[in-house]
Recover the amino acids of this structure.
């Protein structure tokens, strides 16, 4: 039976067993142990791979020793390649999984038959969804770090230019020297920024041993035109002035002398963009996945009702009207349809829900939500608590929750929804099994991006640096697209589902 053919059944009806719903039966102890192994592998890869990824731009921007910098970055990239190899080996041993298969394998407890004495009591405390939210925010932070890392690698150079390298080896210093002659002076008027002047100038370099001046020809870049007798800042070796000199500003010259791949201004700008941009996008992901509101302890504002999951799919949440009278943008919801005695409602998850309804089968569950509403709020924290001992965090549409509250709902801890302080449930996190779902194309694109990053960090490619960096960014975009294009068809045609339309009209997979 396909997702499009599934029909809703109320919680009072006799639903099929878990074996009938899934075709192969709900996972038992063996599948639960396999899912636990997958979660542990994902946690190890995240703990090892995330610091290695963050270390690449950090070492590049702050390490001035060329050899130590290159070896540090190569080691970090090798760790990331090892993480990809671990995912590939895991998939080779267990096979690539679809979203529904991974969801089933990550079931924290085995499914079992309904309680003969009636529905079980609710637990007094629910597992928090903070770890899942933080994992999502960390994933966004790491992706942003990878993109900005390529920009930082392209903006610098893995090796010092040959003249600077020789001058630094001979004990180079930064000093103001006198200009003796100027030729080929030219004024430049860029479309942005101030005018500047370039010229071929001869400067007098003092020799440390004899004290006499040695002439040297340098290419100058100054904000004002130079004349004989003007002074410019150069980098040269007093013990070997015959090596020549390099003219520039003191900050960039000092960075070149110390071996830093980036000028101080570029490093500061990239660091601010990295931390602020990655932090902002990570925070948006945290808010998108439910924000700071969560259900862990019951309050007087909480409501609950018995139900069953009957379908999965997507729908559109109608835009809210702002204070100015304008309507905001509509929002796509990945949802499970929960059938209750009071009607069907949408349980919103942060991620694709393809095939989840078949895996949940007809297991009875508690649908719990927080009925308290803030101004402008359209979704409220909610959680599904299965009779077999699992909890799945999500959100509910407030208008549907209010409509449901007009029927027979209960407050956790009351007579209709007792709470058992001894009962414990385990969190069901669908995203914890990403090592099984990662596509081969995404992993190949990520591996190519790592190779390009290694080339940028260890080789001076000249003008080709930006081309290599662009290739790395395209590989990262390809890796992300390979994971999302498989479900992009779901949003190609908007449907008419909103707060006023029944959730069962949502496009199901």
């Amino acid at each position: 039976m396909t997702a499009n053919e599934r029909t809703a059944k109320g919680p009072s009806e006799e639903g099929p067993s878990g074996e009938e719903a899934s075709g192969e039966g709900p996972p038992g102890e063996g599948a639960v142990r396999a899912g636990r192994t997958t979660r542990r592998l994902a946690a190890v890869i995240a703990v090892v791979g995330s610091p290695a990824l963050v270390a690449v731009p950090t070492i590049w921007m702050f390490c001035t020793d060329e050899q130590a910098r290159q070896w540090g970055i190569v080691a970090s990239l090798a760790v990331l390649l090892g993480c990809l190899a671990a995912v590939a080996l895991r998939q080779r041993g267990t096979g690539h999984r679809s979203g529904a298969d991974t969801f089933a394998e990550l079931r924290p407890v085995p499914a079992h038959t309904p309680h003969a004495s009636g529905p079980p009591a609710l637990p007094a405390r629910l597992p928090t969804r903070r770890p899942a939210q933080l994992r999502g925010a960390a994933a966004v932070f790491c992706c942003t770090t990878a993109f900005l890392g390529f920009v930082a690698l392209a903006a610098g150079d893995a090796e010092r230019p040959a003249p600077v390298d020789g001058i630094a080896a001979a004990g180079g210093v930064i000093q103001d020297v006198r200009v003796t002659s100027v030729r080929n002076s030219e004024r430049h008027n860029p479309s942005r920024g101030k005018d500047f002047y370039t010229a071929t100038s001869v400067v007098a370099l003092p020799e440390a041993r004899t004290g006499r001046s040695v002439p040297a020809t340098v290419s100058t870049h100054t904000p004002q035109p130079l004349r004989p007798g003007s002074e410019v800042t150069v980098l040269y070796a007093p013990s070997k002035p015959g090596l020549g000199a390099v003219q520039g500003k003191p900050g960039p010259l000092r960075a070149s002398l110390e071996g830093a791949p980036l000028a101080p201004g570029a490093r500061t700008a990239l660091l601010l963009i990295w931390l602020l941009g990655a932090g902002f996008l990570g925070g948006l992901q945290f808010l998108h996945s439910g924000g700071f509101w969560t259900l862990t302890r019951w309050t007087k504002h909480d409501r609950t009702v018995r139900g069953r999951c009957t379908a999965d799919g997507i729908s559109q949440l109608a835009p809210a009207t702002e204070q100015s009278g304008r309507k905001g943008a509509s929002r796509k919801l990945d949802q499970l349809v929960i059938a209750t005695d009071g009607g069907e409602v949408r349980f919103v998850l942060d991620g694709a829900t393809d095939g989840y309804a078949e895996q949940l089968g007809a297991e009875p569950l508690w649908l719990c939500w927080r009925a308290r509403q803030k101004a402008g709020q359209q979704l409220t924290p909610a959680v599904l608590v299965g009779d077999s001992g699992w909890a799945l965090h999500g959100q509910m549409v407030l208008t549907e929750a209010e409509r449901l509250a007009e029927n027979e709902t209960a407050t956790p801890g009351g007579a209709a929804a007792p709470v058992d302080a001894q009962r414990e449930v385990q969190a069901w996190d669908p995203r914890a099994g990403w090592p099984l779902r990662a596509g081969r194309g995404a992993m190949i694109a990520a591996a190519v991006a790592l190779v390009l990053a290694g080339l940028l960090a260890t080789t001076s490619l000249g003008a080709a640096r930006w081309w290599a960096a662009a290739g790395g960014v395209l590989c990262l975009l390809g890796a992300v697209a390979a994971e999302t294009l498989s479900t992009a068809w779901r949003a190609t045609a908007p449907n008419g589902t909103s707060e006023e339309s029944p959730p069962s009209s949502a496009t199901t997979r």
